[in-house]
Amino acid sequence: SEGINIQDIAKVFHRDATEIIKKLMMLGVMANQNQALSKDVIELIAMEYGVEPIEKVEVDKSDLELYFEEEIPEEAKKIRPPVVTIMGHVDHGKTTLLDQLRHTSVTADEAGGITQHIGAYQVEVDGNTVTFLDTPGHEAFTTMRARGADVTDIAIIVVAADDGVMPQTVEAINHAKAADVPIIIAVNKIDKPTANPDRVKQELTEYGIIPEDWGGENIFVEISAKMNLNLDELLEMILLVAEVQELKADPNRMAIGSVIEARLDKSQGATATLLVKEGTLKVGDPIVVGNTYGRVRTMTNDKNRRIKTAGPATPVEITGLNDAPQAGDLFVVFEDEKSARAAGEERAMRAQEAQRNSTKKVTLDNLFESL
Ligand code: GDP
Ligand code: MG
């Protein structure tokens, strides 16, 4: 396998591999003989043997996370669209709101055209673009965060004015707070005679969400998703919050980003909706996506149009991967197809190995069970 493993190191330092494994264990690092080691661990071992690592250890190309740690020079950054996630309790109107926002944004020449469900879409507001994640809910939000993909810039929490704060409302607040993203409260269903927006405000104060007109810093917009009331105001508030955040990215580099959703299609093979974080994704780009790889064959936007390039915060559905990745996976564009393939295969192999090791794991419990 590629990379430097313990056996390689053992040879370098003329030590027994088991000795190095023990040393690592004492340092709290678990490693087996054939596992490729990270640069940090190699340096750690070198220090243990009193050697300053002189030669730079080459960065492991298959470590996609590393590409996300790269600092981007301020002067290369340009304003990008905000990425917005809509969350809230079931039946409080998330889907209705998403649909309305989407319809309002469909321009005359697109009207009647097929809009495509790709898991995310963009809305134009006064010459600005807003990206909405059409996530099935909190779960996707959490999975993405767990995988290091903090894709959301703003959380909209929908609370039905006739129902008030419910368990999933609280969950949504907690998710948004944990992700440290600004929260906009959309008090929905104000068209209903039983709507009581003030009660919603009151209830939310218990969770530290306080409206501006009550001296707090949370933006509240009273809307009716169904009747299309105040949705313009909601969009304006999103732009306002985005402006304060000064969201920027460098469009002039090889793209990196994450997977919004992915599936295996009978006719098209693997398709994945990618959200570009930095750079511009292009048709023909060699790419590694999670544990899959390929070359971007086609790109389709949320309006079902074929496009050739996609800049920061743009969601696109791509084809051309050898397999379907998973939602929340990271993607990185490589300079050539050969290195993309090598990195992709290495990742797939490691994932398989990890899978095997986890199923092989013997605990006292299952050991006794098998007796
Ligand atoms: P979700 O579970 O949060 O996605 O909620 P839905 O969008 O599916 O909405 C649940 C129900 O509430 C549906 O019957 C909607 O028609 C209704 N609904 C959503 N928004 C409004 C609104 O602003 N006013 C009224 N009266 N009903 C709404
Ligand atoms: Mg829904």
From TrEMBL:
Q: What does the sequence similarity comment in the record state about its family?
A: Belongs to the TRAFAC class translation factor GTPase superfamily. Classic translation factor GTPase family. IF-2 subfamily.
Protein's recorded name: Translation initiation factor IF-2
- Record's function text: One of the essential components for the initiation of protein synthesis. Protects formylmethionyl-tRNA from spontaneous hydrolysis and promotes its binding to the 30S ribosomal subunits. Also involved in the hydrolysis of GTP during the formation of the 70S ribosomal complex.
- Localization per Swiss-Prot or TrEMBL: Cytoplasm
Residues the record lists as binding GTP: 88-95, 134-138, 188-191
Q: Tr-type G domain: from which residue to which, for each copy?
A: 79-248
Identify the segment of the full-length protein shown.
205 to 575 of 781
Q: Where is this region: G-domain?
A: 82-230
Membrane-crossing ranges are none
